[in-house]
Amino acid sequence: MSAVVVLLLFAGWSEAAGRILPLLAHRPGMPRTLVGGSLLAAGLVEAAVFALWPLTAWTLAELVVSTPPPGDGLEWTPGLVAPLMLAAVLAFPLLGPLLHLLLFVGVGAGLADPLATASGLGWWAAAGCVALAGAGLGVAVEAVRRLVVRISTPRTTEPIV
Fold it and tell me: Which of 6, 28, 95, 134 has the smallest C-beta neighbourhood within 10 Å, fewest atoms?
């Protein structure tokens, strides 16, 4: 389990770095402590979102089936989280957003197999739950990112003439 936590933390930090560093390049002179704190906080948030992906997919699967699934739930394993870490490393914008998206689709497809087995759903229904969970978490974290950017952007005042 500790290997999964380390991989999720690394994936979260890498994903955050790929999103924050290009923004910081446009704002020279930012204090290093602020940059480091931002990367640490954003990395923890991204890691938490990644960690919630199987749990959210499991919760959706429970809503879809008429009787509670017999399994204990869906959890990350080192084999499942390793491609996620690769996708997070490729989050850097210059390395290709399309490849990044394709890897996330591959990770989601990898999560669909254990979800289908644990919940008793068919593969396509499980894949739909994983996709919906991933999209929902992605939209939520993007909304938070935009809110943070809006709040942290300095406002310019117009001179009084």
Answer: 28
User: Which pTM value belongs to this model?
Assistant: 0.76
Question: Of the candidates 102, 13, 16, 111, which has an alpha carbon nearest to the alpha carbon of residue 54?
Answer: 111
Annotate 96-123 with DSSP letters as a single string. Answer: -HHHHHHHHHHHHHHHHHHHHHHH---H
Q: What is the pLDDT of residues 6-49, one digit of tens each?
A: 878 887 887 777 777 776 767 677 777 777 787 888 888 888 88
Report the alpha-carbon distance of residue 149 to residue 114 in Å, rounded.
37
SS3 state at 16: helix
Distance of CA 154 to the CA centre of its chain: 27
Q: 108 in a domain, yes or no?
A: yes
Domains contained in the chain, number? 1
Does some domain include residue 33? yes
